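INFO batch 0412 | record 1 of 1 | parsing
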Amino acid sequence: MATQKPQRTSAEIEDIILRKIFFVSFVDSMESDSRVVYLEMTAAEILSEGKELKMSRDLMERVLIDRLSGNFVSAEPPFQYLVNCYRRAYEEGKKIGSMKDKNVRGEMEMVVKQAKKLFVSYCRIQLGNPDMFPNWDTNKSSVSPLLPLVFSEVGSNIDGFGGSSGGVSSPPGFLEEFFRDGDYDSMEPILKKLYEDLRGSMLKVSALGNFQQPLRALLLLVNYPVGAKALVNHPWWIPKGVYLNGRVIEMTSILGPFLHVSALPDHALFKSEPDVGQQCFSEASTRRPADLLSSFTTIKTVMNNLYDGLTEVLMCLLKNTNTRENVLGYLAEVINRNSSRAHLQVDPLSSASSGMFVNLSAVMLRLCEPFLDANMSKKDKVDPKYVFDSDRLELRGLTALHASSEEISDWINRINPGKADVSANNSDGENRLLKSQEATSSGSKANEVSLLQSNRPMSSCSQKAKYPFICECFFMTARVLNLGLLKAFSDFKNLVQDISRCEDTLSTFKAMVGQAPSPQLQQDISRLEKEIELYSQEKLCYEAQILRDGGLLQRALSYYHLMVVWLVSLVGGFKMPLPPACPMEFACMPEHFVEDAMELLIFASRIPRALDGIILDDFMNFIIMFMASTEYVRNPYLRAKMVEVLNCWMPRRSGSTATSTLFEGHQLSLEYLVKNLLKLYVDIEFTGSHTQFYDKFNIRHNIAELLEYLWQVPSHRNVWRQIAKEEEKGVYLNFLNFLINDSIYLLDESLNKILELKELEAEMSNTVEWEQRPQQERQERTRLFHSQENIIRIDMKLANEDVSLLAFTSEQITAPFLLPEMVERVASMLNYFLLQLVGPQRKSLSLKDPEKYEFRPKQLLKQIVNIYVNLARGDKENIFPAAIIKDGRSYNEQLFGAAADVLRRIGEDARIIQEFVDLGAKTKVAASEALDAEAVLGDIPDEFLDPIQYTLMKDPVILPSSRVTLDRSVIHRHLLSDGTDPFNRSHLTVDMLIPNTELKAAIEEFIRLQQVKRRVDNSNTQSSKDKIQTMNTSLID
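INFO prediction complete | emitting C-alpha cells
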C-alpha cells in the first residue's frame, strides 16, 4: 500500500509561490537559472532573528529591497526584474485558481495581489529615481523603459501600420495598476519623461510612417486622470520662450508632432519620412489608374485614423473638467501664434505647416459634430459677443464684415462701459449661460452630453470661462478652418497655377529649341521638367488628403451651413428686404467667416459628388440676401465671390439637375436674384483696389454668364423686364452703361492686340532675318508673342460675353438703350464695331486659327447687326438713325451695304438683313436732315453750346458746385460712370442738378428766330426765282 504524500502547509505553499515570483533563494544551491539570486546576507539576518528561511508576505518588501540593492552583476536590471516579477505573479495567480482548498486559495490570492502591488510601487520608485538601485545593464537606453510596455499594450490594436515593441510585452494588468493607483506627485516625473519620449518618437513622421502606435499610447495615457493631468501640466504642453511662434509650437509641444503627421508637402527643413509624394506619386503620369487609386485610398485611410485618434485624445481631455481649460488654452495658443498663415505669403520657419492645420481642421470638425444636427438646435449657444469679449482668441484685429475698428470700439463702449461693469455682471452672465446649457442634454453619447452641458466656470477667478464649450468650439473651428483647410484650398489652387505656368513656359522653350537651340535652353527645359514632376507629386498629395476625403468636405459643409444660418439669425432670419440698418452684431463678425464659406462651396462644387446630400437652400438664401448689400458686406470682392458660387451651381456647369431648383424654384431667387446681380454689376466698378480696373472684368464675366442663363428661364426674364421698366433711369441704366463701356474696351483691346500679334508673326516667319537677331531678343519676342496670345484669348472671351448679353436683352428691352443720355453712346459703340468688322481694315484682322483666340468675327457681326435691328424695332420716335449719324468717328453709310453683303454670304436671316438695310436708308435721310438743320442754325453763340461736347444744348442744367452749365443728357451720361462734378470733382447726383430755365428759353428763342429767318430767306429766294421766271417768260413772249 502506497504511502500518502504529506500535505503542504499554507506557509510552505506561500514560500514556494513567492520564491518563484521573486526569483530569489535563501540557500546557495548553485541554481542553474542565472536570474535566480542568492540573498546570503538576507538569509543570515533572518536566521539571526530566529525565523525560518521561508518567503512570506511579511518579508516581501525586505527581500525586494535587498534584491534590488545588491551587486548582482549578471542579474536583470531593476525595472526589467520588477516587471518580470509582476508577470510571474500573474502566472502564479492563474495557477492558484485551480487550488481545491478555498481557504488556501484565498490566502494565496491575497499574497499574489500584495506582491503585484509591491512590484508596481517599486516600478514607480525606480522610474522616478533611476539611480536609487544599481543597474549593471551595459545597454542602457535614454528612452523610458515604460515606453516599450505601453507600445506593446496598444500594438495589437494597430491594423497593419504599427511598429514592433522590440519583443517586450507588458504583463496583463500591469499598466492599468501602474497608472490607476499612483499619486500625482510620484507619477508626474515618470509621465513627463514618457510624454517626451512619445513626442520624440513622432518627430518627422509622415502619413506613411509609424504614427499609430505612439498615438494609441498617448490615448491610453490620457484616459487615466493622472496621465491627463501630467500631460497638460508638462512644460512642453504649451512651450514658453521669447522666440515662441507657430512652428516652434508644432515642433516642441507634446501634441505638435502628432498634429504634424501629414501627406502634404512641407519645408525641406521639416520634411517627414517616408516621402509620401516620392513613394506614392513619382512619375504618376506613367502609372496605372488602379495604382494611383490604391495610394489615394491608403492615404485617406491612415489620415482618418490619425484624425479619429487625435479627436479621441482631445475629447478625453475636454471631458475632464480639470484639463478642459488647458486644452482650450493650447488650441487658442496654436491659433493665435499662427495668425500669419492667413497671409498670402507664409513664412514656413515661423508658421506651423499646412499639414498640422489641415489635421487640426479635421479634428475640430469632429469636435463640432454633436452640435451640427440638422435642426441646428444649439445655434443659440453661439454668442456673437465672444468675438470681441473673449480673452482667449485674438479676433478683434480681424477685418469685419462691415464695421470699422473705430465703430466696433465705440459700440463696445456703449454696450459694455468699462471693465468694472463686466466683472460686476459676471455672475449674472454665468447664471444665464448655465440655464441656457441645461437644454443641451439631447446628445446620444455620454461624452458629448457632458461636454455640451458643461458651462460651469473652470476656475472661479477666471473670466475666460464665461462662454459655453459650444461657443468656444464654434469660433475656434472657424479660425482653424481659415488657417488650415481653407488655406490649403488656396495653396492647392496656386500649385495648379504654378504647374500650368511651368507647362506653358516649357512649351514655349521647346518651341524655341526648334528656332534657336542652345545648351542653356536645354538646361532650362530639364529644370522645368523636374519642377513639374515635383509640383505634380505635391498636387496629388493634396488630392489624396483633401479632395478625395468626402467625409472631411461634408463635415466642413455642415459646419458652414451652421455658420450661415447663425449669421442670418443675427439680422432677423431668412427674409427680404434686409433691415435698413445693419445690426452691429453682424457688422462686427470677421469677414473670413463668410469668405471661407464661399471658398468651400466653390471648391466643393468643382469636386464630383462633393455636394451630394448637402442642402444648399440656406446657402442660396444667404447669397441672395447679401450679394448686393453694401450696407451689410462692405468688401465688393467678397460679394463677387458669392456670384462665383452661383456660377458653379448653374445646371450646365454643375452637371447636376438638383441645382436648377435653386434658380428656378426658389422664392428669394425668383424675386431678387436678377435685381441683385444687376446691382452688383454696377457696384463692382469701384472696389477701392489698385487693380479694380482689371478685376471688374472677370467678376462681371461671372455675372454675365449667370444673367445669360437666367434670361432663358421665363420667370426670371419677366422679372428682368419689370426691373428694366421700373429702374429705367436707375440701376438698369447704370448696368447698360458699364456693359457698353466694357464691351468697347475689351473688343478694342483685343483687336489692337491682334494687329500686334500679326506683326510678331510676320517677324518670326521671316526666318532669314529672324535667325540673324540675337538669341536673347528672339526669346523675349517669343515670350511676348505667347503673352499676347493669352491676353487676346481672355479679352475676346469677355467681349463675346458682353456683346451676347447686349444682343439677347435688346431683343425684348429697348427703351433704356434709346434714352437721350444713352442712345448716342450705344450708336457710337455699334458703329465702331461695324467699322472694325466690315471696314477697310477688316482683312488685317484675319488670323490662321481665329477660334484659338475666341475670335469669331461672323458671330460678332451677326450679334452687332441684331442689336441694330432690335433697337430700330423699338424706336417709336425715330431717334436712333439720328444718333447713328452723329458719330463722326466711325459712321459711314457704305458700311451698312458692306455688312449686308457679308451677312448674305454667311447665311443670316433675310428678314434681319432687310431691316438692317432699311435702317441704313433711314440713316441717309437723317444725315441729310441733320445737314439742313445745321444750315438753319448757322453760327451758334458759344453760350448755347455744351462745354464738353460743343453741341447745341437742348436742356441746360447748372452744376451746383462749379456753377457750370451743361446739357442734361451730357451730364447724365457722365454721372453714369462717375458721380462727381467733372470740373471740380465734388460729389454730384442727378437730383442735385439745377435747371437753367432762362438759358433754355434763350436757346429755344434762338432756334425759333433762326428757323423764321430761314423761312424768310427761303421765301425771298423763291420770290426772286419767280420774278426771274416771269421776266424770262415776258422776254420770250
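INFO post-check: The radius of gyration is 42 Å.
INFO record closed
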